[in-house]
């Protein structure tokens, strides 16, 4: 079994990223509506720093930084607990530093709040529900980007 590597996503990987996202158990049931009709497109991958965590050519997770916000971060259910989410956050913060950002905003999926706090994000507020697609309040957090 090969090493997990984090590399820039290619636009033609957008369908695989969409499939990974929609397969997430964290977005089933009451949280499913937020992903209804949402797809990662080739144009999105091309325009935004999107990185995949892969092993032996298999995509295990991905993240996307849009301006100064972590827009997407998903890890395949079968790959959770391997430290992939932590590696994606660390990589995202390094990318943010390269872009001269001082901080990165996260509007979190409620069950992911504890993960982001463990990773060093600080809670800054709450984004109110916006029915019908988002029927729950979402935690807002911020990562300070390390300078070194």
TrEMBL record:
Superkingdom of source: Bacteria
Keyword entries, A-Z: Acyltransferase, Transferase
The keyword Hydrolase is assigned to this record: no
A Pfam family recorded for this sequence: Acetyltransf_10
SUPFAM superfamilies the UniProt entry points to: Acyl-CoA N-acyltransferases (Nat) (SSF55729)
InterPro entries xref list: Acyl_CoA_acyltransferase, Bact_Acetyltransf, GNAT_dom
Stretches assigned to the N-acetyltransferase domain: 4-142
Record bears the keyword Transferase: yes
PROSITE patterns for the chain: GNAT (PS51186)
Identification of the protein by name: N-acetyltransferase
